[in-house]
Amino acid sequence: CAPQELSGFTLDQVAFEDGKGKCPYDPTKGHTGLIVGVARVCKGDVGGARTLQKKWTTFLKARLVCSATEQQLNFNRLPAVFHLPGADTAFFGVFQARWGDVDVSAICRYHILEVKKAFEGPYKEYREQAQKWGRYSDEVPSPRPGA
Fold it and tell me: Are 76 and 33 in contact (CB under 8 A)?
């Protein structure tokens, strides 16, 4: 892996991903949860050799948190995003949630440096035996995924 030009990355306006096995299910609520996130994909990634052939090997994702902590309310639907380019690039997300029987909305701002910092932070891995996510404690692979 080598450093990638900025033009090699994109944030799509609408991206669909098969959520099979990815959304948490709460049997008491009778529906799956939606996780709002941002992802980084290298357009020029051709995948790995043999078993990883034609697979994304530079795909990383991070959760976007937009909440009203006093009300213990997490906005978990993201119907729109606005990109404000410039020296201090920012993304504004229009989030929605349900609070009791009321639909509520919020706008949260994320600076590009904060997004980059999230992708440079520690990893999580899914632990099959425990059936939950936990912090990855082994040595960071080289090259670092997403680099």
Answer: yes
Q: Quick one: average pLDDT of 55-79?
A: 77
Residue 118 contacts by C-beta under 8 Å, 6 or more apart in sequence? Answer: 62
pLDDT digits (tens, 9 = 90+) for 14-65: 555 554 444 444 445 444 444 445 555 555 555 555 665 555 555 667 778 8
| pLDDT above 50 (res 4) | no
Backbone CA torsion sign across 141, 142, 143, 144? positive
- Average pLDDT (132-139) is 81
Distance separating alpha carbons of residues 65 and 62, to the nearest angstrom: 9
What does pTM read for this prediction?
A: 0.53
Residue 22's identity, in one-letter code, is: K
125 contacts: CB under 8 Å, gap ≥ 6: 133, 134, 135, 136
Q: What is the dihedral of CA 88, 16, 2, 54, to 10 degrees?
A: -170
For the chain, the structural domain boundaries read: 6-121
Could you tell me the two tokens for 99?
Answer: 């609070």
CB 45 within 8 A of CB 36: no
